[in-house]
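Predict the assembly for these two chains.
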Amino acid sequence: MSDRKTELLEFLQKELAQDHPGVDLSTEPLVESGIIDSLGIMKLVQFLEQRYQLKIGDQDLVPDNFENLDAILRLLAEKGR
Amino acid sequence: MDFTESEEQALFRRQIVEFARARLNSGVKERESSGTFDRAGFLACAEIGLLGLPVPEAYGGLGQGVVSSMIAMEALGYGAEDQGLAFAVNTQLWTCEVPILHFGTEAQKQRYLPKLVTGELIGGHATTEPNSGSDAYAMETKAELKDGVWILNGNKTFITNAPIADVLIIFASTGESKGFGGGITAFLVETDQKGVQIGPPLKKMGLKTSPMAEVHLEDVVVPPEMVLGKKGGGAAIFSSEMEWERSCLFACHLGAMARQLEKCVEYAKERKQFGQAIGKYQAISHRLANMKLRIEMARPMLYKVGWLKDQGQRAVLEAAIAKLYVSEAYVQSSLDAVQIFGGYGYMEEYDVERMLRDAVGSVLYSGTSDIQRNIIARWLGL
């Protein structure tokens, strides 16, 4: 597993998915399951911007970009990180 | 962080205070009693540049940053006794112009921003519904794509500026399911479009000169070029709006609190009971000291949000903290003002009771105090 994927899973588990024990966050639909909601997305974006020194535009804050771990990794790749 | 005002900012602050006192304060009581919006005052705000504060010069605005906009709003709140008018100005700026500026296409910007800046158009946004207030993304207003156009149906309530608005940013669900994950999309809708019905002005406790109404949408046809931002991107637009509103609108309230304190200090020096000015009694002077303390605590909290945003950083937590503190401080200081004025404070003649009524809404709009505490708790990992 890549370091980035591990870091993201740790963040999701610790900060956003406390109420979803036992869920496999690497495959779980994060938005549909409610793990990422309107506040969670802001918290996640702040983490991504600070941890990976990138800027995620407000235009990119659509549920599709955060629907699962792969989508988030794709977004990071698009941002050049 | 450095909040030192430049000479230009200080001059602009003074100009706005003088402008507000000269142009916006006449007839406030009468307008409040009748619930009348001061359109002439609104246009005067446009003339001095207030309606174009954050809008680039290319669209007729002043191209100011967040901190400069906050200074201007604080000055407006300090100078203008008509807080309903100030509220309408803020609504236009942060919930209509700023989202168009940040998320609009060039065609949308060209169509709306120059006329919003001059006050020729009045705008607002429509998010709240009868069954979705704090749970904003549980909205029932639907937008369905049929034959290449969006069809909007639903009901919105508590929509500031609706009775006078020409254009509203309408938030609607464009997903299969409700809630944030279902997808919320923002649409630019003109109020003279077929199927848009604006209800009668709603009667409120305060901010009576700021018109508010329900908005009914029945088979309103919206072409795809009037989608603001991306499909499903409504939540991001709403969050962005709220960060601006929670800093700049509440800077306006900070200005009002400073005016309120001056009025109270003046009264405490003049009013005599038991042979001396009431300000000599600790019961009064400590109340005034607490009012001053709240203002001084609130100012750096608010300007920190502006500074962060001017640096291109997100300020969700900081905006929630500032909004929560300022709104609750505003209400508490307004209660203190009534107490300092005693029986006179309860009478309409002294304006103190109006300030209290105006202040109460601040713990509700832009997200209630409870919602701000929820945001702060989430950032604490709870």
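Chain B has three domains: 7-122, 124-233, 235-379. Strands of chain B lie at 123-126, 142-146, 149-160, 167-173, 184-190, 196-198, 212-222, 227-228, 272-273, 276-277.
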